[in-house]
């Protein structure tokens, strides 16, 4: 008898519906899987045989064929154990279905004892099931909280194959889980900008960067507080919308990085990989492809501390995601892509010893050494960074000062307001932040008055700016005006934006 069960696979960060057809006919005992299964799926056969036996069922001594359709899409992982086992139970008439299986989606791994185990990527599969008008998804109990993030589809959680069989045959009822509103991760940050003495210029630049998601580079001598400033950055990032939250959670779901108890990610990601990271871990990939750091930082921040220490190849691989907000990973069977719309925050010393350009005149590096060091950060990379700032050492007097700086929460309020202004302005477009404005949008949203045009022209000629730099200044000025809650971009906004663009001249020319 033929049975037909619905399940799901993953392509990039999205779910993709598949069918599992099981046919059992008389003949020499055999268990065949067809439809581009990988080695993992083939191993399912042994797990299923044991799980059936240890749950009081049996693997029929007949010819069993399981087809995973459509056949042109590669099926990976262990998530088909459960639907395949159910298909066998139905096809061999060991149980009879008393629920509408055409509107039910299933996935899960089986333990040899018949227990149903959790898998990665639950959230995108639930989203896909809902999109296809499924009524219910039967999920491993371990994945149930994550599954409940999506409303409007019944989530049935099971722990064991016998429980699943009883539910499908109608011997027991299991009520759908209720969405839990308290599933967010409350990240706790221990640092606050109030603890950073002085550095007003750097703090302001970080406020602008956070408000418009502008890439930012900090240059300064050792111990000037660059790492400390960066660690405070998550405390002022704008709140995420519900959609942004789900988009980020999808990626963490696929990467298997969600906490089971608090599966919804509500704070913007902040990833700070060490400079020894491999290219694959940075951009993603691998035999069973996983999102890399650039995708784990999607809609959040990728902090690269000590930028020139990173492998040249790593910095090169960052160019595509920085430009396209997307990484493409080529594989034998297909190419997949993961979103990677992150804000880059980077820090570096100006030379190998770290003191080039500082007032103490302590730098002993040769011109060539300095050049070689700075050139590890390529022109195209620098060009993609909107804000360049110097972080000088803080004076003794400032460090001793007992007065507290502005608290992160109050900076964050301004950032959130500027973000709301952007969300309202770009409603109905794909643009989320000023930094992502296209040249055409820049023309539309960054109009200048006469005085502003004059200032811009002066800066353009005196600083010998490239057209790319010109656009970056306009986008930055847009963010600075938004922080000021001004619909018009005014001369002080442009003046501040220009000031964030003159370091490349000082160090790289
Ligand atoms: N402005 C400041 N206010 C308070 N503490 C500071 C400040 N600047 C530096 N510090 C102190 O100095 C320590 C070193 O700073 P940090 O590690 O951030 O420097 P850095 O710029 O990253 O240096 P390096 O270039 O060597 O990595 C901090 O942990 C902090 O205790
Ligand atoms: Mg540091
Ligand atoms: Zn030096």
Folded structure, characterized:
With 509 residues, this protein is α/β, with parallel strands linked by helices. The protein has 3 domains: 168 residues, Ribosomal Protein S5, domain 2, CATH 3.30.230.10; 236 residues, P-loop containing nucleotide triphosphate hydrolases (Rossmann fold); 73 residues, no CATH class. The protein is built from 21 helices and 18 strands. The strands form 6 sheets. The chain has a 5-stranded parallel sheet with strand order 11-14-17-10-18. It has a 4-stranded mixed sheet with strand order 1-2-4-3. The protein has a 3-stranded parallel sheet with strand order 5-8-9, sandwiched between helices. Strand 6 and strand 7 form a beta hairpin. Helix 6 packs across helix 19. The radius of gyration is 28 Å and the shape is elongated. It starts with a strand and ends with a helix. 43% of the residues are buried. The mean pLDDT is 91. It binds adenosine-5'-triphosphate, magnesium ion and zinc ion (ZN). The site of adenosine-5'-triphosphate has 16 residues, from helix 7.
**CATH superfamily caption of the largest domain:** P-loop containing nucleotide triphosphate hydrolases
CATH architecture classification name of the largest domain: 3-Layer(aba) Sandwich
Let me know the average pLDDT. 91
Question: How far do the termini sit from each other?
Answer: 75 Å
The count of β-strands is: 18
Strand content: 15-25%
| Helical run tally | 21
Ligands bound to this protein structure: adenosine-5'-triphosphate, magnesium ion, zinc ion
Q: What is the gyration radius calculated from CA atoms?
A: 28 Å
Helix content: 25-40%
The strand order across the widest sheet is 11-14-17-10-18
């Amino acid at each position: 008898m033929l049975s037909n069960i619905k399940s799901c696979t993953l392509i990039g960060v999205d779910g993709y519906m598949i069918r599992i057809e099981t046919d059992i006919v008389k003949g020499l005992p055999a268990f065949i899987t067809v439809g581009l299964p990988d080695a993992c799926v083939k191993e399912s056969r042994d797990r299923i045989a044991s799980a059936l036996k240890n749950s009081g069922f049996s693997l029929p001594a007949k010819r069993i064929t399981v087809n995973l359709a459509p056949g042109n899409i590669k099926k990976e992982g262990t998530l088909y154990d459960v639907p395949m086992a159910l298909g066998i139970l139905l096809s061999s008439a060991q149980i009879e279905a008393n629920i509408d299986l055409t509107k039910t989606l299933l996935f899960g791994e089986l333990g040899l004892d018949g227990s149903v185990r959790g898998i990665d990527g639950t959230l995108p599969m639930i989203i896909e099931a809902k999109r296809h008008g499924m009524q219910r998804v039967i999920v491993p109990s371990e994945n149930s909280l994550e599954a409940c993030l999506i409303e409007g589809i019944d989530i049935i959680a099971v722990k064991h194959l016998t429980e699943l069989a009883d539910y499908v045959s109608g011997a027991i009822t299991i009520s759908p889980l209720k969405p839990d509103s308290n599933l967010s991760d409350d990240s706790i940050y221990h640092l606050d900008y109030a603890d950073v003495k002085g550095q007003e210029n750097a703090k302001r630049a970080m406020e602008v960067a956070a408000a418009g998601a502008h890439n930012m580079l900090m240059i300064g001598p050792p111990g000037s507080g660059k790492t400390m400033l960066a660690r405070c950055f998550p405390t002022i990032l704008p709140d995420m919308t519900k959609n942004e939250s789900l988009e980020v959670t999808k990626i963490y779901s696929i990467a298997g990085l969600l906490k089971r108890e608090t599966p919804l990610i509500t704070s913007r990601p902040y990833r700070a990989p060490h400079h020894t990271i491999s290219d694959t871990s940075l951009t993603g990939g691998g035999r069973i492809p996983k999102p890399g750091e650039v995708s784990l930082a999607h809609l959040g921040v990728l902090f690269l501390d000590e930028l020139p220490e990173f492998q040249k190849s790593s910095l090169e691989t960052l160019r595509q995601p920085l430009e396209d907000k997307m990484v493409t990973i080529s594989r034998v069977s297909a190419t997949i892509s993961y979103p990677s719309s992150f804000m880059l925050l980077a820090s570096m010393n100006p030379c190998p010893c770290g003191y080039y350009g500082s007032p103490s005149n302590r730098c002993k590096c040769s011109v060539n050494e300095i050049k070689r060091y700075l050139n590890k950060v390529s022109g195209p990379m620098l060009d993609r960074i909107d804000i360049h700032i110097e972080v000088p050492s803080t004076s003794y007097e400032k460090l001793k000062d007992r007065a507290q700086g502005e608290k992160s929460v109050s900076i964050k309020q301004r950032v959130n307001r500027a973000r709301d202004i952007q969300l309202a302005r770009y409603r109905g477009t794909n643009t989320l932040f000023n930094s992502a404005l296209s040249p055409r949008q820049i023309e539309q949203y960054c109009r200048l008055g006469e005085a502003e045009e004059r200032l811009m022209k002066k800066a353009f000629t005196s600083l010998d700016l490239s057209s790319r730099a010109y656009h970056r200044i306009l986008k930055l000025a847009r963010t600075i005006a938004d922080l000021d809650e001004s619909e018009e971009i005014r001369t002080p906004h442009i003046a501040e934006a220009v000031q964030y663009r003159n370091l490349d001249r000082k160090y790289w020319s």
